[in-house]
Write a structure and sequence with these properties.
Layout lengths: L5 H135 L7 H15 L1
Helix pairs in contact: 1-2
Length: 163
């Protein structure tokens, strides 16, 4: 069975209390300081983490604000570019229409000049033919029987045939 020896129990108790006192005086203070410094270190790390979180939140808010500004500027630039493109398109179309109009006008003028040239050429040929015809008539007949109005009528008939 188990027996308790009171002298041994008392000596172990005294030894335990002495060891406890020595640990208390020698190790307890540094152990408490170590635990206190660890608590302080953890507290500082938590504070730094909170400050970092708040700074990150501010940076995220700033980032979102700048991103919205950039998006707005992009939209504005897109609208400006679209307006500028429309303006340039209208300008190109207007210039092309003017150029076509000028080309049409020049071609009309060229046609008029060609028409005048051809009419002059035709008149010259009519006159030559009239003179040739007149020369034949004169050779073949005596024109004294023709009046001036009859000769003019003959010339008109020749001009109509040539036209």
């Amino acid at each position: 069975m188990l027996e308790i020896n009171p002298a041994l129990f008392l000596s172990q108790m005294v030894t335990f209390l002495i060891a406890l006192f020595i640990v208390w005086k020698i190790a307890w203070g540094p152990l408490q300081n170590l635990m206190k410094s660890r608590q302080d270190n953890i507290r500082e790390n938590l504070q730094q983490a909170e400050q970092t979180r708040q700074a990150a939140a501010r940076l995220e808010e700033d980032y979102r604000y700048r991103l919205s500004q950039i998006e707005q500027q992009t939209k504005e630039l897109f609208v400006i570019a679209k307006l500028e493109g429309n303006r340039l398109r209208d300008e190109i179309v207007t210039n092309a229409q003017k150029e076509v109009s000028e080309m049409h006008k020049r071609s009309q003028e060229q046609l008029e000049l060609e028409k005048e040239y051809l009419l002059r050429d035709l008149r010259t040929k009519v006159v030559e033919l009239s003179l040739s015809l007149s020369g034949r008539i004169i050779k073949e007949q005596d024109i004294s029987g023709y009046s001036a109005s009859q000769l003019d009528g003959m010339l008109d008939i020749l001009e109509k045939k040539e036209a």
